[in-house]
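Hey team,

Filing this mostly as a record. A colleague (T.K.) asked me to run one chain through the structure pipeline before their review meeting, and I want the input and output archived in the tracker in case anyone asks later how it was produced. No errors, nothing strange. Just documentation.

Input sequence:
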Amino acid sequence: MSIFDKVKDKASELARNNGERIGQTVDKTAEAINRRTQGKHADKVHDFAAKAKDAADNLGKQPPR
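Output structure:
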C-alpha cells in the first residue's frame, strides 16, 4: 500500500466520521465569502459549496481498504 493509499483511506475515514461538520464548515465558509464580496459571486460560491459537499460525501462513502 502506497503512501497515497494511506492518505486516501485516512481522508475517507475522516469524511465518514465528520460529514456533518464538514458540511457545516462549507456552509459557514460560503456565507463568509458572500458577506465579504457583498454577494457579487453568490452563484459561483453556491455551486462550489455544493460540489465540495458532494466530494466529501463521496469520499465518506468509499469503503476502507
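Quick notes for T.K.: The chain has a mean pLDDT of 93. The chain has one domain: 3-61.
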